[in-house]
Amino acid sequence: MTARKLKNGVMGFLVAASAMLLIAVLVVIMWHIFISGVRYLNWDFFTKAPAPFGENGGGVFNAIVGTFLITLVAAAIGTPFGMFAGIYVAEHRGHRFADIVRLCADALQGVPSIVIGIFGYTFLVVRFRSYSALSASVALAFMFVPTTTRVTEEVLNLVPSGLQEAAYALGARRSSVVWNVSIKTAAAGITSGLLTSMARIAGETAPLLFTAFGSRYIEWNMLRPMSALPLQIYIYASSPYPALQQQAWSAAFVLVLLILLLQYSAKHLIARVLRVKA
Amino acid sequence: MAAQPSRSDQRELVRERAFTAAGLTAAVALVTTIVLFLLQLFVASRTSQAAFGLPFLWRSEWNPVTEQFGALPMVIGTLITGFGALLISTPFALGIAIFLADYAGRKVAEPVKYLIGLLGGLPSVIFGLWGLFVLVPIVSRFEVWFGRLVGSQALVASGTTGVGLLAAILLLAIMILPFSASLILESLLVVPTELKEGALALGATKWDTIQNVELPYVRKSTVGALVLSLGRALGETMAVTMVIGNGMRLPHSLFDPANTLASAIANQFLEATSPVYVGSLIQLSLILFIIAILINIAARVILRRGVQQ
Amino acid sequence: MEEPVIVLETQKINAWFGKEQVLFDVSARIPKNRVTAIMGPSGCGKTTFVRTVNGLHLMTPGARSSGTVLLEGTDTSTMDIVNVRKHIGMVFQRPNPFPTMTVYENVLAGYRLTGQRLSREKADQIVEATLNKVGLWTEVQTKLFKAGTSLSGGQQQRLCIARTIAMEPAVVLFDEPTSALDPKSTAIIEELLSGLKSDYSIIFVTHGLQQAARISDYVAFFMLGELVEFGETKRVFVGPQDKRTEDYLSGKYG
């Protein structure tokens, strides 16, 4: 009797301890990012391009611009494909082909990001003979589509069938029912999913290594190589200069803030905005 | 009654057709993407296939200078880091999942779940950054101490840098922990309360119930979750790349620098100049792609059988 | 006795869900500008019948039907189902205003969903006229631009009715329109049904004998998928011709 009770107590303790450990690890990591990152956060950091080689100072504005552009374009490319694929799968539930589509979306989601990067390189960079931000966006779009498809399908299936029937009963065609009733009703969930996916791809590095390649200059042209925050972090962290390594921490800080912002929007703002409208 | 189609009817018909076409196009595009990936990678690695043929998979030499390439060191590196990370993180993942499912009240569980989500959402490169500047020095000190402890000069030597398999395994374990913990938690939450209450009513302690009722119930889905986590670990790139040391040879100990399939590509692709070098790296990505698909299939098969329970 | 004008006729309607047959040779002639009640015990096929008329039945996976539906003389199978539904509207058991649309937009939902554009004036006109017809205008005049779901249950159902008649259908089908409502709203809607027959032909499914007796001009009694008896309500209730009808009226079935 006491042996079992002892075991119960010990296991309870161990279980709580693992949770504590996880929190501890998280706190340690976030702490480092904060402490090391804050040190170099100044106005220059946000507004200037990297300093010329060997000089101190400079910033990561080029990377910030790059992250915004590449992420937004990737989302712009991936959203229609993802949503329409999700609509297709939701509307054709039970059909063999729809199952295959879902399977392929899952498979694509499991493809390692470096493989996506290599594909982007062989398919686009080689073909057009230059590194470009656009090829990076296309590569990221491959990562954006599967989650968008799944979210769209799941949220569409949650729309009450009574609403769809009422729309059909009024003489609406399927496309009108899906778009004006189902999608609109599910809009909050879908947008939230889109923002979450954007948060994910904003942090990806591997697909950018051989597509966007990186650049020391502030670049606005999608057809040229461009920097991005994760890419810049990697390059600076791997460099032998402590000043650049410091900037890597600060850039990491900025990236984490950006991702947190996107995730927060996904959760709270969307629900609030759509509720206000009603 | 059957009137001529009005302008709005015609518009609606066009919209209907366009919408249906869009759905079908997206669906087909998704399916062809996978096939396209496979074909493209296959074609782009021709040079390496021509040079080494099938034996590439088990050749152990990877030498950019002599242009002799083989995938074995990377495959070994991938397997060791993947399984090693899984081994280390699984007990903790189980612990956290059990804690959240059975011990934590709402007030504790919600924030903890949020923190797990936070950790899981951190980009790989940031883990790499932390790993490189915080974890690696610690690992290095440990390795040097351990080498001295067992009196091995070799271990001390390879341990001074800190980068290598051990650092990669530890970092990877931290990275897949949130993922496997939340998957296991999901399956634990499905366990019917009646079963748990039934056990408690018979006089079982909380842990007895967990051990004898809940865990067996979720065995299949837990295995599925672990397989998926392994898949995640095998595909991890940036963090591993930054702490594994870009070793070109078969590692002899956990302290040696090494490479995984992913990190080799990330570390070397931009410096690869000759066609055979590039082709070999692309072949590595093809191998990685196939492994990822196989793991995905394995996880599905396991999870489907688990659901049927 | 005057032969009523027929607005909707079904000829030998059979319906199946997969292998199970739920309607057997249902032939009915629904009079124009009257209220026709469809009554019978649970599971007798009343709802399925009504859903066959406007084509919703076939939207269930595995569902099949045969037979002809004539709308004002025209075979509906020769028409695009989308057009059929513009002439035959349907109000459902659970009020289902579109949550992403305001009251105003809900009334006009049929136009928007079928891509028909309306001028602002015409739109305002239709909204006011239909809301008046269902007795909602004074109640929701100030709430026109709030969400359709912000109204009470009874109001929501009247909004759904308004939405349906805004399309000026010839026939309006009601599938147990009051069973999800409180008694007060039920009374309001029953009165509304009688009032609507001057402009539309009403067919409503009910599981309550009393409701059928109260407000309908004609009644169709279904049992186990068959149309057992059809006729003027007074006549059927006072002197049923089929034994099954008699048993139902005397409360033998649920």
Write a structural description.
The complex is a heterotrimer of chains A (278), B (309) and C (254). Chain A is an all-alpha fold and 278 residues long. Chain A has two domains: 2-38; 46-277, Orthogonal Bundle (MetI-like fold), CATH 1.10.3720. Helix content of chain A is 78%, strand content 0%. Chain A has eleven helices and no strands. The mean pLDDT of chain A is 90. With 309 residues, chain B is mainly α. Chain B has a single domain (76-307), classed as MetI-like (MetI-like fold). Helix content of chain B is 77%, strand content 0%. Chain B is built from 13 helices and no strands. Chain B has helices spanning 7-44, 46-52, 72-103, 106-121, 124-150, 153-159, 165-189, 193-201, 206-217, 219-235, 238-243, 261-268, 275-307. In chain B, α3 (72-103) runs parallel beside α7. Chain C has a domain at 6-96 and 169-249: P-loop containing nucleotide triphosphate hydrolases (Rossmann fold). In chain C, the strands form two sheets. In chain C, strands 6-7-8-3-9-10 form a six-stranded mixed sheet, with helices on both faces. A four-stranded antiparallel sheet of chain C has the order 2-1-4-5, covered by helices on one side. Chain C is globular. The model of chain C has no long low-confidence stretch (mean pLDDT 92).
